[in-house]
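PROTEIN DESIGN WORKSHEET
SECTION A - STRUCTURE
LENGTH: 521
TOKENS:
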């Protein structure tokens, strides 16, 4: 037991003697210092071993690096002011940073005016070139402690209020803070079409960037010309490229391809209710019932006559699809001119008379075969009628006379065939020769006439009678047949100088040559 205590005392004495020798040596080194160390090293001034190794000058720089760990890290990583320049890394630290020159000495002497900042990890670019050193390097801090991220300096100026994080360089550059380049495609909402030209705050109100709605309707509900009737899935029809030109292809995406005028119709013309709720019927009549000028009389299958090109361009070919081809004026008629009832129930005849009964000015007297006289180019155009087939064939001047000269009304059969019926006013004889004009006259000319009195009557004209005019004997009007007396006294009573004493047989004494040539018989 006593032996163990002695050993302990001897060991303690030995250690105490060792440290006493070191203290004496430190005091001696302190006395030999060339001058006071800088203020930063003042607390280690009496601990020379921190910076110096006895008789080993080559290890002094490593001792500096052991204490200045951040510089050592830059040198090892080839970063920072010391690590980026090989010439500095190879020099002993004391070449640039000497010590023992006083408390107020500056052993990191740099010329601010000529310092090349590109030799650091933070190159000065753009507007940074014109910034003073003190704007980033605070007087009470080391140069290496200056902030290197944008947000460290510009955080207080951040108009986004931190909503976009602290990586300012993702959008902005040192050239101009207001000119930014952010690749929106790296987000969940790549900018396409017109979105590329939109200002950020148009979608990111109050610089709110997180949880920005990506649904079209969230931004464009005020521009919705459909007033919400077609739902909120705008992308089904529209694209960012152009709001007005929809990407929805009706021909491809539906069973109702748009043709003709349907291509120019706006969506609401057919989709009057929400598309998601109601799909319009595909029949023409379902949309165009109010446009039906036929008032439903021709049924609901509009496409049997019309096409999408236009209502007026009817596709129904009357010539091919019916037994009544439309010609001349018929081709210009509207359907309702003939089809006045329900198309599927009416049974129109193809005869003229079936449609034109009310137009028949002949009152049915000429029958129902209108085409015998008339053409489809017009009632009064090129009227063809063979009058010779009637009981009054047209001869002479009658052939060139207009119909209405004789047919005062269109009731042709009521027209009389006697000459006097038409020429009564032209009768120079004043009816003295009766109504049968054709006994003397013919249709070639009224003034050309021929009557053989000797052959056609019982009274032969001779002597002075040959030179007499008809009216000298025939001066009394007759209603029908001429019944003139052949007795001399009937005409010459006023010439009887005998005053009737010799009777009425004048021819017993007189002849027709002259009254004065008397021969008693």
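SECTION B - SEQUENCE
RESIDUE ASSIGNMENT:
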């Amino acid at each position: 037991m006593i032996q163990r205590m002695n050993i302990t005392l001897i060991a303690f004495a030995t250690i105490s003697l060792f440290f006493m020798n070191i203290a004496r040596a430190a005091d001696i080194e302190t006395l030999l210092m060339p001058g006071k160390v800088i203020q930063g090293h003042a607390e280690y001034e009496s601990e020379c071993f921190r910076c110096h190794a006895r008789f080993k000058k080559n290890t002094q720089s490593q001792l500096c690096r052991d204490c200045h760990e951040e510089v050592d890290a830059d040198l090892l990583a080839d970063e920072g002011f010391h690590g980026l320049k090989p010439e500095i890394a190879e020099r002993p630290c004391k070449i640039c940073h000497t010590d023992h020159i006083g408390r107020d000495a500056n052993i990191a002497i740099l010329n601010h005016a000529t310092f090349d900042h590109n030799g650091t990890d933070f190159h000065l670019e753009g507007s940074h070139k014109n910034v003073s050193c003190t704007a980033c390097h605070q007087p009470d801090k080391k140069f290496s402690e200056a902030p290197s991220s944008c947000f460290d300096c510009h955080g207080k100026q951040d108009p986004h209020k931190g909503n976009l994080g602290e990586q300012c360089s993702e959008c902005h550059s040192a050239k101009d803070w207001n000119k930014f380049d952010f690749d929106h495609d790296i987000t969940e909402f790549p900018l396409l079409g017109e979105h590329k030209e939109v200002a950020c705050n148009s979608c990111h109100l109050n610089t709110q960037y997180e949880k920005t709605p990506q649904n079209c309707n969230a931004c464009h509900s005020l521009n919705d010309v459909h007033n919400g009737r077609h739902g909120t899935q705008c992308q089904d029809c529209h694209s960012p490229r152009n709001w007005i030109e929809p990407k929805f292809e009706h021909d491809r995406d539906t069973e109702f391809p748009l043709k003709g005028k349907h291509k120019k119709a706006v969506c609401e013309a057919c989709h009057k209710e929400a598309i998601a709720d109601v799909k319009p019927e595909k029949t023409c009549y379902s949309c165009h019932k109010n446009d039906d000028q036929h008032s439903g009389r021709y049924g609901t299958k509009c496409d049997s006559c019309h096409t999408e090109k236009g209502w007026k361009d009817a596709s129904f070919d009357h010539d091919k699809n019916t037994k009544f081809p439309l010609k001349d004026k018929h081709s210009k008629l509207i359907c309702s001119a003939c089809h006045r009832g329900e198309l599927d129930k009416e049974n129109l005849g193809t005869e003229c008379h079936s449609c034109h009964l009310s137009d028949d000015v002949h009152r049915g007297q000429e029958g129902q075969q209108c085409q015998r006289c008339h053409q489809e180019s017009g009632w009064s155009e090129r009227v063809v009628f063979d009058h010779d087939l009637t009981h009054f064939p047209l001869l002479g001047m009658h052939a060139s006379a207009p119909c209405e000269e004789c047919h005062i009304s269109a009731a042709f059969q009521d027209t009389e065939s006697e000459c006097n019926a038409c020429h009564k006013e032209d009768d120079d004889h004043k009816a003295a020769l009766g109504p049968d004009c054709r006994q003397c006259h013919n249709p070639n000319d009224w003034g050309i006439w021929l009557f053989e009195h000797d052959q056609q009557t019982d009274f032969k004209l001779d002597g002075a009678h040959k030179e007499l005019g008809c009216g000298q004997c025939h001066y009394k009007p007759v209603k029908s047949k001429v019944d003139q007396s052949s007795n001399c006294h009937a005409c010459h009573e006023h010439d009887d100088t005998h005053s009737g004493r010799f009777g009425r047989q004048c021819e017993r004494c007189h002849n027709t040559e002259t009254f004065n040539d008397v021969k008693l018989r």
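SECTION C - NOTES
Confidence is low (pLDDT under 50) at residues 13-26.
The beta strands are 306-307, 310-314, 441-442, 445-449.
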